[in-house]
Amino acid sequence: MKKTALITGVTGQDGSYLTELLIKKGYAVHGLVRKSSNFNTKRIDHIIENKKYTDSFFFHYGDLTDPSSLNRLLDKVKPKEIYNLGAQSHVKVSFQIPDYTAQVDALGTLRMLDAIRDTEIDTKFYQASTSELFGKTSDSPQNENTPFYPRSPYGVAKLYAYWIVVNYREAYDIFACNGILFNHESPRRGRTFVTRKITQAACKISEGMQDVLYLGNLDAKRDWGYAPEYCLGMWKMLQKSNPKDYVLATGKTFSVRQFVEIAFKVLNIKIKWKGSNINEEGYNSKTNKVLVKIDKDYYRPTEVNILKGDFSKAEKELDWRPKTDLEQLIKLMVESDMEKLRTEAVYRQKK
Ligand code: NAP
Ligand code: G4F
After folding, report:
1. Which of 95, 140, 210, 263 is the 20 to 30 A CA-CA neighbour of 317?
2. From first to last of its 351 residues, what are the pLDDT tens digits of the chain?
3. Residue with the nearest Cα to atom 10 of ligand 1?
4. In terms of C-beta density within 10 A (0-12 exposed, 13-18 middle, 19 or more buried), how is residue 348 classed?
């Protein structure tokens, strides 16, 4: 019999890679899909539509804001592993919809844990915690013992989620882990996150399909890794005999400005900068054409200036380490976006 896993957020970046990983490992994967007025399964359609996977992948409508759907699903599926990846995961958007963000990211986690408690199923629980918890920290690099100081409604909601996981682990002896994951990206990254926004725009600009890329804070620094490697780390956490919390990161930090430079470099465009703050501009050093401008609407009311993680506990106890460096990551994102543009162009021509 196949081992069963349940993934909330199965239609997201991480959910799609984790599904592939678990199916490869012989699991039957059940995914919680929230109802949308349009198709939201694009990242997992290649699994849903593949006949080879009819006994490996099942999806169920449900929502982290709807406790009865969660209880029913856990009772029906009785998964041996649960990965709680579902979230309103956009930090800037969380300032616009703070109540909803708390409902999904904070109380959604409580609802999942409480459903485990109510149904009394024998399971292991992974919580998608985040480096946003560290927020305004002066400690660097950040590890499992670094104090938290979140800087957004998203970060605060995830702080509740982090602690309710710890509390249910201690109070009810539930096997529950927090993966404190630093930023991880891929060609499947949502297009409104800064990395994908940059790689997609750089491709369009180099093909003459876009004039300018508008960004917010270029000075923010992040520790960016490759998403599929982080999904392997999630799985490793649930294979241990004791539940613990782990940081997954690369240990390196780069600014948004550096990310822009590398993305354009992949396309043989050298970016130079002039001006400062909201008047800063990035231009093509050969043609002098301005390609990057600042739009202050992309700034956040409170920002996390710099993140850099220390993954030594995961390395020691899980034998986990990142493999893809930032240049390789950006190259694979740019190449994928370019491929998509070309496929779309051919499709448009055929129509
Ligand atoms: P993502 O691409 O934004 O995916 C989020 C998933 O959550 C989507 O499947 C989304 O469904 C689902 N979702 C949203 N609201 C929901 C609701 N009310 N009920 C059920 N599902 C809901 O995020 P990701 O990058 O894969 O990240 C996965 C998790 O890790 C998130 O919890 C995120 O906060 C956390 N995290 C991410 C990173 C990172 O750098 N990627 C780092 C640390 C932690 P739709 O497809 O319908 O929108
Ligand atoms: O790509 P971002 O939106 O990701 P952010 O805020 O770091 O959050 C991501 O990583 C977290 C882990 O640390 C996850 F928990 C969270 O779910 C999400 O996946 O922004 C990165 C940085 C920020 O400092 C932002 O201010 O880029 C800066 N930035 C500059 N211009 C921009 C833009 N961000 C976005 N999204 N769009 C811009 O135009």
Report:
1. 140
2. 899 999 999 999 999 999 999 999 999 999 999 999 998 999 999 999 999 999 999 999 999 999 999 999 999 999 999 999 999 999 999 999 999 999 999 999 999 999 999 999 999 999 999 999 999 999 999 999 999 999 999 999 999 999 999 999 999 999 999 999 999 999 999 999 999 999 999 999 999 999 999 999 999 999 999 999 999 999 999 999 999 999 999 999 999 999 999 999 999 999 999 999 999 999 999 999 999 999 999 999 999 999 999 999 999 999 999 999 999 999 999 999 999 999 987 767 776
3. 9
4. exposed
* pTM beyond cutoff 0.85: yes
For CA atoms 94, 97, 102, 104, the dihedral sign is: negative
Mutate to test the pocket of ligand 2, among 137, 194, 221 (most ligand atoms within 8 A of CB): 194
CATH H superfamily, domain 194-218+255-305+325-350: UDP-galactose 4-epimerase, domain 1 (3.90.25.10)
* Nearest ligand, measured from the Cα of 112: 1
Q: Which residues pair with 215 in a beta bridge?
A: 294
Do residues 282 and 273 lie in contact, with contact meaning Cβ atoms separated by under 8 Å?
Answer: yes
Q: What is 3-187+225-252+309-315's CATH number, 3.40.50.720, 3.30.2290.10, 3.30.2130.10, 2.40.128.110?
A: 3.40.50.720
- Residue nearest atom 22 in ligand 1 by C-alpha distance: 86
> Which residue has 């190449």 as its token pair?
335
- Binding site membership of 91 for ligand 2 (Cβ less than 6 Å): yes
Question: Under 8 Å CB-to-CB from 68, ≥6 apart: which residues?
Answer: none
CA of 274 relative to ligand 1 center, distance in Å: 36
Q: Is the CB of 300 under 6 A from ligand 2?
A: yes
The domains spanning 3-187+225-252+309-315 and 194-218+255-305+325-350 adopt the same CATH topology: no
Measure 241 CA to ligand 1 centroid, in angstroms.
27
